[in-house]
Amino acid sequence: MANVVTTPETNVITTQQMSKAREIDFVRRFTGASLQKLIEVLGVTRKIPMIDGTKLYYYVTTGTLQSGIVPEGEIIPLSQYKRDKVPVGDITLKKWRKAATAEAILKSGYDEAVRETDKKLLADVQNGIRADFFTYLTGIVQPASGTEGQDGYVPAVGTAVTGSTLQAVIAKTWGNLQVLFENDSADIVHFIHPLTIADYLAAANITAQTAFGFSYVENFLGMGTVIMNSRVPANAVYSTAKENLIMYYIPVTADAMKAFTMTADRTGYVGIKSGYQTEERAQIESLVMSGIQFLVEYANGVVKGTIANG
């Protein structure tokens, strides 16, 4: 009888290797081809790793400039300013899990039930990060309330401007930010609803690009990068200097992620474990973990523009 070889052949591709390859591709598309591009477009240079549960803050500077007209020999009055930390909340490790049952795989096939739903999971995780950022950004600029000098007075946060056209509003937000950051070459990013800018883009023959689910136009009217998202209120523009943006994240090297042998790339922004079996439920599951939060450092460095005739 001929000898029968029962051990695996050399260099055979195993299901474990295929699963790892899918995980690597998932992370590559999430960070390398998408999130990294967004970071580049936003101009974020400060990417700060944090521990789960760490409190996040932004800063608000308030004060009053005293008159500079002082008679000879008299004491020059002090102009007093203070910088307050405003808590945003804790940075949180977020976790997502999905499962494809044996019946779903039997009905739709492995690719449809597992791999294609991994792609949808990726899209939804990205959407959640975008939603968190815009909820935060569009809530920063607030008018003063109460009477100055009395109890209960809350100073204004950020700056609000109005204009009759989109171009006028962006020019005003751009101009205010040049003054606020005391730098006539500050690099500005504007956030706007797609419908607010659609007519202008159609007439101007400008091509928009895409990053992390955002559409954007660089050097719009020579006044910075415009990023379009439907979560920005219509007829409004939120602008800040790129240097004011910070990305906080919980690295995949954190103990919680290491314990689950998550796959990540060198950035460590997101981890995934895909295609593992849960035999007691006859399911193929995927687990994603990430803790990404974009914030501004100085709330007063955000300008909200409103198109009055919009």
Which features would summarize this protein structure in a list?
310 residues, alpha+beta, three-stranded mixed sheet, 6 helices, 15 strands, globular
Task: Give a structural overview.
The chain is of the alpha+beta class and 310 residues long. The chain has 6 helices and 15 strands. Strands 5-15-10-6-9-8-7 form a 7-stranded mixed beta sheet. Strands 1-11-14 form a 3-stranded mixed beta sheet. The longest helix is centred in the first third of the chain and has 28 residues, at 15-42. The N and C termini lie far apart (87 Å).
Overall pLDDT: 81
Query: What Rg, in angstroms, do the CA atoms define?
Result: 25 Å
Intertermini distance: 87 Å
Uncertain stretches: 11-15
Q: SS-based structural class?
A: alpha+beta
| Sequence of secondary-structure elements | HEEEEHHEHEHEEEEEHEEEE
The main sheet comes to: 7 strands, mixed
Beta-strand content:
25-35%
Number of strands: 15
Count of DSSP H/I helices: 6
Percentage of helical residues? Answer: 25-40%
Give the overall shape: globular
Strand line-up across the major sheet = 5-15-10-6-9-8-7
Write the layout of secondary structure elements.
Elements (H helix, E strand, L loop, with lengths): L14 H28 L3 E4 L5 E10 L15 E11 L3 E8 H7 L1 H28 L21 E5 L2 H15 L7 E5 L1 H11 L4 E3 L2 E4 L7 E4 L7 E6 L3 E5 L5 H4 L11 E9 L4 E8 L1 E5 L5 E6 L3
Parallel strand pairs: 1-11, 5-15, 6-9
Antiparallel strand pairs: 2-3, 4-13, 6-10, 7-8, 8-9, 10-15, 11-14, 12-13
